[in-house]
Amino acid sequence: MDVKQFVWKVLAAAVAAVTLTGATVGLASGTTPEKANRPAMEQFHPVVREAAANTRDLAVEYTVYRPADLDEIHGRLPVVVIGNGACRHLGNNELLATEMLVAAHGFVVVAVGAVDQPANGENGTPRPEVITDGITWVQRENDRKGSDLRDRLDLNRVAVAGHSCGGLEALVAGADPRVKSVASLNSGFFADGRYGYGRDELAKLHTPALFLDGGPSDVAHENSLANYDLATVPAVRATNPGAGHSGFWYGLRDGQVDAAMREEAVAVLVNWLDFTLNGNPVARDYFLGSCTLCSAPGWEVASKNFPVR
Question: What is the model's pTM?
Answer without folding.
Answer: 0.89
